[in-house]
């Protein structure tokens, strides 16, 4: 029988990373490494998440899907994605600004990389004063204007820059140019893809004095050059009620503030459910088993689970596919 599953985080060194995943989210980071990302739940080839709790401990996510199929991920999800888990769930510690980048859509990613594209969303867990996100162009930008700005190093002047705070959320469809500013702790929900076209890195060099590779030519065909001024999807949370932040073809993300006890009915939902605990802690009670979920942890609720009772006080992101 399946039960609420936790997984070992996969830590990723990044030139812009820091220590907030340890200090703010309770992660035990490897010593001496600059960690920018914790992949909480991953089906990316070469980075498959491994179960950390219960009788299935040590099995990876792909192995579980192979055995449990629709009981784990949902019948429609399994029919569409097979053994590939369709979402990549991350925590991001941006102690410096990330590169300006873009991701291809499904069609282009399939043609070039035999992969899915990358539509994603960000939820701000915490911020330093002045922390900002760069999302889309300020207005309609032509291909020529874009290439001219890239060549001159003035690309940031074409982008929307939003000063953000804890609880803010932004939706980033594939093709949207974007960057995460420094001083932000972010939860990222995205399609299972690790394809990034980097187009500007703020003049940064690595420890050996070398700039990171840019993907200017690849990015041109991936970019949506229309304006993007409506991608702020922030919603105020409500106590013991799931508030939808974003619903798209790839995922639905709700914010859920638990105080006391709340029951979540998943019987009509043909999908797994993911909880990301952004603060506090709760007991997760189900007919299939009980687990504790604390700040910084992520949990997968199998699709066969009809209902879950949450007890405690916490802020959760609730993620599934509809």
What would you say this structure looks like, in words?
This protein is mainly beta. Strand 15 and strand 16 form a beta hairpin. It has 2 domains: 216 residues, Jelly Rolls; 78 residues, Sandwich (Jelly Rolls). The longest helix has 10 residues. The protein is globular and about 60 Å long. The two termini are 24 Å apart. Strands 1, 15, 16, 17, 18, 19 and 20 form a 7-stranded antiparallel beta sheet that branches. The protein has a 6-stranded antiparallel beta sheet with strand order 2-3-6-13-8-11, with no helix packed on it. Strands 10-9-12 form a 3-stranded antiparallel beta sheet, with no helix packed on it. Helices cover 14% and strands 40% of the residues.
Describe how the helices and strands are arranged.
Layout: E1 5-6, E2 10-18, H1 20-23, E3 35-41, E4 43-44, E5 47-48, H2 61-68, H3 70-73, H4 75-81, E6 87-94, E7 100-102, H5 106-113, E8 120-127, E9 132-137, H6 143-152, E10 159-163, E11 169-172, E12 178-180, E13 184-191, E14 197-200, H7 216-220, E15 243-247, E16 252-265, E17 273-286, E18 289-294, E19 298-301, E20 307-320
Antiparallel strand pairs: 1-19, 2-3, 3-6, 4-5, 6-13, 7-14, 8-11, 8-13, 9-10, 9-12, 15-16, 16-20, 17-18, 17-19, 17-20
Assign the CATH superfamily of the largest domain: Jelly Rolls
CATH architecture of the largest domain: Sandwich
Radius of gyration: 19 Å
Number of helices: 7
Distance between the termini: 24 Å
CATH topology of the largest domain: Jelly Rolls
Let me know the number of strands: 20
């Amino acid at each position: 029988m399946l039960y609420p599953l936790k997984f070992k985080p996969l830590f990723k060194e990044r030139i812009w990373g820091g220590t907030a995943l340890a200090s703010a989210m309770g992660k035990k980071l490897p010593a001496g490494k600059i960690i920018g990302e914790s992949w909480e739940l991953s089906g990316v080839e070469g980075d498959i998440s491994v179960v950390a709790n219960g009788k299935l401990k040590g099995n990876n996510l792909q192995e579980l899907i192979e055995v449990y199929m629709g009981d784990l991920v949902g019948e429609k999800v399994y029919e569409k994605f097979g053994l590939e888990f369709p979402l990549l769930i991350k925590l991001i510690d941006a102690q410096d600004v990330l590169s300006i980048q873009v991701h291809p859509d499904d069609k282009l990613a399939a043609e070039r990389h035999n992969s899915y594209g990358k539509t994603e969303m960000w939820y701000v867990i915490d911020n330093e004063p002045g922390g900002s996100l760069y999302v889309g162009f300020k207005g309609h930008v032509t291909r020529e204007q874009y290439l001219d700005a890239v060549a001159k190093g003035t690309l940031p002047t074409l982008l929307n820059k939003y000063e953000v705070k804890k609880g803010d959320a932004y939706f980033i469809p594939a093709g949207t140019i974007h960057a995460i500013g420094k001083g932000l702790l972010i939860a990222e929900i995205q399609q299972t893809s690790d394809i990034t076209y980097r187009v500007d890195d703020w003049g940064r060099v690595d420890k050996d004095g070398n700039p990171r590779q840019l993907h200017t030519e690849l990015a041109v065909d991936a970019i949506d050059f229309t304006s993007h001024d409506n991608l702020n999807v922030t919603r105020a949370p409500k106590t013991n009620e799931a508030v939808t932040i974003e619903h798209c073809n790839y995922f639905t993300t709700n914010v859920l503030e638990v105080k006391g006890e709340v029951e979540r009915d998943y019987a009509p939902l043909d999908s797994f459910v993911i909880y990301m605990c952004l603060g506090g802690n709760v007991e997760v009670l189900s007919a299939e088993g009980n687990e504790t979920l604390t700040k910084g942890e992520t949990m997968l609720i199998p699709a066969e689970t009809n209902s879950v009772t949450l007890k405690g006080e916490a802020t959760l992101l609730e993620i599934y596919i509809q």
